[in-house]
């Protein structure tokens, strides 16, 4: 009845790594060193991912501002360049089928490759931060501020940073180093959180370097004279056609800071698009407050020979990501019958040590109640402009989960395909039903993973697929 | 106003809504627009409300613009090229 | 857990199950619907939303007409507009030979007493479809058809039914179906349900129920593939098909374009997963661009394929059981059941509550697949091309 497309003629690799951040670069370098034919597909024009974005192009001045940890990415990038792994930048993966055929768009056309093993190294995205005014021009994520600095050396002189998390403090110190300190930091960490987080202090001590760095960053912000408004809530970004001010309640009174530039952050969460598309099992991690792919001890998903390396496996930061990338490569080599490097146990121990600080950070910087449970009038789905209230109403009518809410309201149906609202929608539905996000689950992710021109699909695989008569 | 912290880099010129924008070679259209103080790059197809670049890493699709007449292009994922004509993606041109 | 014996147990929470449950409840029956996943999870919630009489199998025309009458007053019935829009359904001909076949069909229908399908010459077609490609020569149209939002519609049937006392048990798969005395006993992982009457609306999974009733039929699981684009300027107000190439094409009110029409993905009814086959779907893309050149600039945002049941002869089973009195079937709508949902639900409600209906459902009898039925009881032409 159906003629399956011929895939025998497609280029095939032992390992296809998707993403060229720390995990992807380290994994591909290690895999090719083990003799596995390796391909790296990455959306960006140069390796580094978001954390080491444009690491190869940055000069000493830029590196001085971005700091030592950023500079560490240079070794990973040169390692990838020196390896025998094929590296294809500007490649946007839009589908992966159950036979591990990967379809991607590059240079205006689509092509396919076959993989024996797929390593998903697509990292993290910023957690949705729904709040009044977050769609106004001039409002970005904190990650966006860092990317502007890394790629273009562009800074804002009136930036107000709102939210919480290590990345926020890091970006603030980088801006201070660039001689444009933020106008203010509005931190949403409730006072009581410090006590809760302190319970994890003992176990976090092996990660004392991270703690020391954290305190150093906060001291630097203080030294630079940046006003820090703690325990802030009820945040509203004001403006008609663009952001004009941030207002919030802190210290028992409402305050207002005029600015055209606001950067939001509530931590980062795994980018689940590919693992969801491939029907890998996921679980909701209460500490990270995010969905994570279910993985075995070697970072293999519930789908055979599909691995997740880096922050996509659970947030661990850049150092952990690189280590996990290498460990995945070692496991893939092992499964292919190659000798296992003696370094593996050392790496595993280093990984455990690197992760020691996480429970403390996850407790301290858990997302703010305001963003987890936005007011009814707040837009949650930015693309289709669906409010939290509409989502709650759909649940009240009987829509049982995110997919029904999506079908009913179009939440998550716009071009971002749910990336910017998915977690928030799951949280809101769960709260409305009095359940956990784990039981309401998440959007089903459909191809194409990124919007694709119809004309590109029409030309796709035209040579290899025999044209069939109408049914 | 946004500032550039270093003076280096080759300049590439293109237009946004007919206005000339000076960008650095290799940077994305969205970065160049933000550096030039252009924070609004599209109108929401639902309400017509103004929107601008949000994530700068290709996930939010807020920075969709029209490039040389082709709509729905991600300004944060496409590098500047000399002479391209970039325009605001207007709601009424996308949907009635 | 044991449940009180109810009048009617419906297996399957798709549009047919929900519509039949509503109509049975409107006739005073106590009804429970059990659904193995969630209501509208499969084809009923994710089809292309065509409300189409055009191009139907001749046997389906009368029930499709009856269903259309309900669509016109759907808001009155369900307190929800279901996103229903009246719009012409138009099947374009790319060649004169195609157009001749369409003319012959219109003539056949007129002879049968139906005049809803009309031939459009090139100029008339272009009036309805200004953006259609110049090479198209004419079309067959049913001007009073339309489209609706499938999930919203099925959900509205569920809510209205629930408001009349119908109980819905979701995530509740019927494992065994037995006769116990005069009643039916359906065992699920969430308890046993007993009822005086039983209706099988199990879609792609209906064959398992029919088999347990002693009526084995072949229901193939299929996965009709669909694409939706990002919003585009309004250029098309009709729902468009094609006489020879599979196509179902419509621009929604919000400007997005939904394209489907018969190219099939890979269904896996055991896991509920359906996989897209892009080397097939590319032909749908090519057809859409051939008929509407403006689509060259379209961007695909999402594609999907709901799991649907298809009968060997391409028309559904709408029928009392031939083996168990009190059991009924409405399944196997073969990718064109959405428009029929309101009407067939009404027919089943009538049949189950009163024991009779004057609707011409004989061609859809399950007995046509019985071994002794010999040659297939299929009717003259089978629907093709546009899917629901």
TrEMBL record, chain A:
One of its GO terms (molecular function) is oxidoreductase activity. Residues 13-322 form the FAD/NAD(P)-binding domain. CDD domains: GlpA-like_Fer2_BFD-like (cd19946). Coiled coil: none annotated. It holds the Pfam family Fer2_BFD. InterPro entries: BFD-like_2Fe2S-bd_dom, BFD-like_2Fe2S-bd_dom_sf, FAD/NAD-bd_sf, FAD/NAD-binding_dom, Metab_Enz_Cyan_OpOx_G3PDH, Opine_Oxase_asu/HCN_bsu. Residues 379-430 form the BFD-like [2Fe-2S]-binding domain. Keywords: Oxidoreductase. This is FAD-dependent oxidoreductase. It comes from Jiella endophytica.
UniProtKB/TrEMBL annotation, chain B:
It comes from the Bacteria. Keywords: Oxidoreductase. It comes from Jiella endophytica. GO terms for molecular function: iron-sulfur cluster binding; oxidoreductase activity. This is (2Fe-2S)-binding protein. The keyword Oxidoreductase applies.
From TrEMBL, chain C:
Gene3D superfamilies: D-Amino Acid Oxidase, subunit A, domain 2, FAD/NAD(P)-binding domain. Signal peptide: none annotated. Pfam families: DAO. The keyword Transcription does not apply. GO terms for cellular component: cytoplasm. Transmembrane segments: none annotated. Residues 7-351 form the FAD dependent oxidoreductase domain. Keywords: Oxidoreductase. One of its GO terms (molecular function) is oxidoreductase activity. This is FAD-binding oxidoreductase. It comes from Jiella endophytica. The lineage of its organism: Bacteria, Pseudomonadati, Pseudomonadota, Alphaproteobacteria, Hyphomicrobiales.
